[in-house]
Amino acid sequence: MSLLTIMPSGKTITAGEGMTLLAAILAADEALTHKCNGNAACGTCHVYVQEGRKGLSRIAKEENEKLDAIVGVGSKSRLACQAKILGTEDIKVELLGFGSGF
Ligand code: FES
To answer: Is residue 7, in this structure, part of any structural domain at all?
Structure first.
């Protein structure tokens, strides 16, 4: 289990191993656009992982390619639908609140 803190609301939830960041964020009743329903195809679920990046699954080729096409991507960027919680570290994510996937 990892403690997931969601910014800017500051809401925290516990998230189980194997859960995607997207599923955990939605389970916390936070809004996060996910137009392609988690297929690494739209980029609308782009978030910044502020802490605990090692507690997430590695970035696979599909996610990397999609991130490359998004404006505003930085070293903390992940697609929430592709990042799986490993349960090894607590994580803090920042929801971006704008359509970064377009
Ligand atoms: S929901 Fe479309 S890329 Fe994550």
So the answer is: yes
At 2-29, the pLDDT tens digits run: 999 999 999 999 999 999 999 999 999 9
Q: Domain tally for the chain?
A: 1
pTM comes to: 0.92
Domain CATH number, residue 34: 3.10.20.30
- The DSSP code for 55 is G
Contacts of 65 (CB under 8 A, 6+ apart): none
Pocket test for ligand 1, best of 42, 57, 95 (most atoms within 8 A of CB): 42
User: What pLDDT is stored for residue 71 in this prediction?
Assistant: 85
